Amino acid sequence: PRTIGWFTLALLLALTAAAFAYARHLFKPLDDIRAGAQRFGQADFDTPIPVRRRDELGELAEQVNTMARDIHAMLDAKRALLLAVSHELRSPLTRARLNAELVAPGESRDALLCDLATMRDLITDLLESERLAAGHAALQREPCDLNALVRTLVEEQFAQASLRLELAPQLPRAELDPVRLRLALRNLIDNALRHGGAADTPPCVRTAQVDGRLELSVRDFGPGVDDAQLARLSDAFYRTDAARQRSTGGVGLGLYLCRLVAQAHGGTLRIRNARPGLELTISLPA
Questions:
Q1: Which residues contact 217 (CB under 8 A, 6 or more apart)?
Q2: 282/266 Cα distance (integer angstroms)
Q3: pLDDT tens digits, residue range 234-275?
């Protein structure tokens, strides 16, 4: 009886293992579909879901792949439309700015030129963000002095703003794209001035070398944002201000472009509540 009992137990365990393996084999397509849905949700359409069987689950995988291809095509069409419209807007915007220069000096002329400059910056941000997001992220790298880049940008575009510079001495030169990095830094400073320019302490621009990486940080001393919103601040067109007023946050492209520029360089964009204020840091490989 003992031998029969052990044999029966072993047989039951073997049958259980075989049934489990067979069930895993049956539901393997579900794992593939789940993994594919996660990839598609992260805008990775390069790898379709493998079709392992010609049954209902195989048909489901094919339908999800078809849906992903359609979504990818719609996203490509949207990007192409945005690029075309943004590019075509540049010429009439340039002509409008030239005509505005002929207007008699005064508050109206200054306001018009300011609005045209804002439109120019928005179009530039939109074009660059779509180029980087669409895979055209070939950077024009050259040996770059990060401190010199910061000083030049502040002198050229923020000479009238109240900013504090804390630049680390003797930073190594790195292979960077100065044009796109200037765009990212301009957006970081614009964001800091918009949300913390009225504070008693002026926004601070800081450079540092930490663990072999270059860091470019901009911190304001304003009210900050809710912790629940931090993860979405660098999403395209995300706004913490539901009214979408220009004075309180633009259109939601600035930090998105900063994240794309950092990722194109092999770096990251970190956002944290500094209490007070918000600190945004671009970390770049040196």
A1: 204, 205, 206, 207, 208, 279, 280, 281, 282
A2: 11
A3: 887 777 765 445 455 566 778 888 888 898 888 999 999 888
